[in-house]
Specification:
Elements (H helix, E strand, L loop, with lengths): L5 E7 L2 E7 L11 E4 L24 E8 L2 E5 L1 H6 L2 H4 L3 E7 L8 E7 L6 H14 L1 E9 L2 E10 L2 E7 L18 H4 L3 H13 L12 H15 L24 H36 L1
Antiparallel strand pairs: 1-2, 3-4, 4-5, 6-8, 7-10, 8-9, 9-10
């Protein structure tokens, strides 16, 4: 079995499902190393020659591919372009497929595409063709030093180029041990499934990406701002004690936890409705007294 990145839990109402996080991607980047052209020694952080310890001017840095340990083949910008001139400047559409046929696991980095002045009409034609046919264009494109598979799709009035992973860039999940399809063998009851569905139904909402934030980043930036205002710049401080991890729910309590989660969800919904009603009543009362 592959090694997990971290172990934690999925929080589902009051239920905690212990899980391990495993990387699904295996990068296939052509890695180039910065070299000092004078002695072909690797150049590290802050442009320092790793052999001499001296700083290297940008004009003296070349890029090399480590062909074998400690031996590099230098590649110039001309080499990178000459590898396939047409491919480096072209988004080459090779097929059209329904969007729902592409597993989300294959989606990677998105880019916006905007037409140059002379390409506006053709841009609009392709956009509307994709929109009306409900298709995406599968294409190949070279960005920097590697070729990517990509999906060309419509987003409102724009064309978006969404990089895709090649099949060989995804690890096989076959080594992971996951529950089988037999609910009976797992001891799952119809009541537990029913309660879980009720909990899901109570949490259904429209997709509004702006309402979600990277809370960890927000908290970390707030801490950085606080420390900076306090003059704690370039000062090593003690790491705060980590919060105690949540205890995992016992499997035998699953049905009860799901039931309590549904009841809690309903209760919070009633409380919100009551608060909103009280606010409206108070507001109307103020109007009458005026």
């Amino acid at each position: 079995m592959p090694r997990s990145i971290w172990n934690g839990s999925i929080s589902f109402g009051l239920v905690q499902i212990p899980v391990g996080l495993y990387p699904a991607e295996q990068p296939d980047e052509l890695s180039l190393t910065m070299l000092d052209r004078h002695d072909m020694a690797p150049v590290g952080y802050d442009r320092i020659n790793k052999q001499t310890g001296e700083k290297v001017d940008w004009n003296d840095i070349v890029k090399g591919y480590e062909y074998s340990r400690g031996q590099y083949v230098v590649l110039t910008d001309a080499d990178l372009k000459a590898a396939n001139v047409e491919a480096t400047q072209t988004i080459d559409i090779v097929a059209f497929v329904p969007l729902d046929q592409i597993d989300p696991m294959y989606f990677d980095k998105p880019y916006y595409l905007a037409p140059l002045k002379q390409g506006r009409k053709a841009y609009a034609v392709l956009r509307e063709t994709l929109r009306e046919s409900n298709m995406v264009a599968v294409a190949k494109v070279v960005i920097r030093t590697r070729q990517h598979l990509a999906a060309l799709r419509v987003q409102e009035e724009r064309l978006v180029l969404q990089l895709l992973r090649f099949a060989h860039e995804l690890r096989s999940p076959d080594e992971l041990e996951v529950p089988g399809k037999s609910m009976k063998a797992l001891g799952v009851t119809g009541q537990e499934i029913s309660m879980a569905k009720q909990l899901v139904a109570g949490m259904v909402t429209d997709w509004k990406p702006s309402q979600y934030h990277d809370e960890y980043r927000d908290d970390l930036m707030a801490r950085i701002e606080s420390k900076a205002k306090a003059g704690e710049i370039n000062v090593v401080s003690k790491t705060p004690s980590p919060k105690a991890p949540r205890r995992h729910a016992k499997v035998i309590d699953l049905a009860d936890l799901l039931k309590r989660s549904v009841e809690e969800r309903r209760g919070s919904g009633r409380q919100r409705a009551k608060s909103a009603h009280g606010h409206r009543t108070k507001k109307h009362g103020h109007r009458r007294s005026a």
